[in-house]
């Protein structure tokens, strides 16, 4: 079972150090996230361009944003959506359908990415979760090493707002407590959340896991080298608005909802061509 897991910013007694006691998977040899040591990655010529399908238009219909008590996530699933937004290429064994995206962040003083590069943690990380189209749901996909492809995007703080994030930032206040959900004011092009189009061909690839319990080792990870720009003011809205706690509970800010880097063990990290 996934029992009663948490981040140590909520309760130290159920934080990442304890996850392996709650779910055996979390102590496995293929866990995520990792610190990507660029001096040790090997270039793999099979890692071509990521083919983004449906990322370039705002789909009809609605997207739901929710606070699930450990992150804020937007679900992309739904009759009109599933099958229209997907990724392929990039050495992936199939077409992978986008099902949801969510964030991991720190606090006013602490960076909050899950993946690190060369010993450096970034302020925030976006995960766009994709399901191998040969499986019909995440539960089935989780049981297989080729089940999921997660695209990880690191953030960098810059002076000016990234206005492509305005819809999300504005919605945070409506999902400040666990269990709250609303429809977003509008859908948008998913590629508007990414770095510039000419920066998408450089990425790192390795085989890993979900970064939360049950820590299923079912994820082909793609971590883009180029960070997404966001302003401090926008990042602070993530840090200040969301709570781990539900209505009627003692308020606990949702901060530092990241798992620290896990041992690489015998795995290899590959880099795409430029
Ligand atoms: S991650 O991208 O490795 N951080 C799940 C998907 C991606 C990642 C972690 C977990 C996932 O689907 N978990 C099972 C379903 N979740 C709901 C959710 O989507 O995120 C239930 C749960 O975890 O208890 Cu909150
Ligand atoms: Zn995640």
> SSE string, helix = H, strand = E?
HEEEEEEEEEEHEHEEEEHE
Structural class: mainly beta
Please state the average pLDDT score. 95
The beta-strand count equals: 16
Strand percentage, roughly?
A: 25-35%
Shape descriptor: globular
Name the hetero compounds present: ligand B30, zinc ion
- Oligomeric description of these chains: single chain
Q: Describe the largest sheet.
A: 13 strands, mixed
The gyration radius over C-alpha positions equals 17 Å
- Low-confidence spans: pLDDT under 50, at least 5 residues? none
Number of helices: 4
User: Fraction of residues in helices?
Assistant: under 10%
Describe the structure.
This protein has 274 residues and is mainly β. It has helices spanning 19-22, 138-141, 166-171, 232-241; strands spanning 35-36, 42-43, 50-53, 64-67, 72-75, 86-89, 96-105, 116-117, 120-121, 124-132, 148-158, 181-183, 203-208, 219-224, 228-231, 270-271. The strands form 2 sheets. Strands 2, 3, 4, 5, 6, 7, 10, 11, 12, 13, 14, 15 and 16 form a 13-stranded mixed beta sheet that branches. Strands 1-8-9 form a 3-stranded mixed beta sheet, with no helix packed on it. A hairpin with a 4-residue loop joins strand 4 and strand 5. The radius of gyration is 17 Å and the shape is globular. The protein binds ligand B30 and zinc ion.
Summarize the structure.
The protein has helices at residues 19-22, 138-141, 166-171, 232-241, and strands spanning 35-36, 42-43, 50-53, 64-67, 72-75, 86-89, 96-105, 116-117, 120-121, 124-132, 148-158, 181-183, 203-208, 219-224, 228-231, 270-271. By secondary structure, the protein is mainly β.
């Amino acid at each position: 079972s996934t029992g009663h897991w948490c981040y140590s910013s909520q309760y130290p007694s159920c934080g990442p150090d304890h996850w392996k006691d709650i779910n055996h998977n979390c102590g496995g040899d293929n866990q995520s996230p990792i610190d990507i040591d660029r001096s040790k990655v090997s270039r793999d010529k099979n890692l071509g361009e990521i083919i983004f399908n449906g990322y370039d238009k705002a789909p009809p219909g609605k997207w739901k944003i929710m606070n699930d008590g450990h992150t804020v996530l937007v679900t992309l699933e739904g009759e009109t959506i599933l099958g229209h937004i997907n990724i392929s290429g990039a050495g992936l064994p199939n077409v992978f359908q986008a099902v949801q995206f969510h964030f991991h962040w720190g606090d006013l003083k602490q960076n909050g990415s899950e993946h690190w590069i060369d010993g450096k943690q970034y302020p925030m990380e976006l995960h766009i979760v994709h399901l191998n189209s040969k499986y019909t749901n995440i539960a089935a996909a989780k049981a297989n090493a080729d089940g999921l492809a997660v695209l990880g995007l690191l953030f960098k703080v810059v002076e000016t707002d990234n206005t492509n994030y305005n819809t999300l930032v504005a919605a945070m206040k409506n999902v400040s407590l666990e269990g709250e959900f609303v429809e977003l004011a509008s859908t948008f092009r998913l590629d508007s959340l990414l770095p510039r189009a000419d920066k998408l061909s450089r990425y790192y690839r390795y085989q890993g896991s979900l970064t939360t319990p049950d820590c299923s080792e079912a994820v082909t990870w793609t971590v883009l080298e180029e960070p997404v720009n966001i302003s401090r003011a926008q990042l602070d809205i993530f840090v200040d608005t969301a709570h781990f706690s539900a209505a009627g509970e003692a308020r606990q800010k949702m901060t530092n909802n990241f798992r620290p880097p896990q041992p690489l063990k015998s795995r290899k990290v590959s880099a795409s061509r430029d």
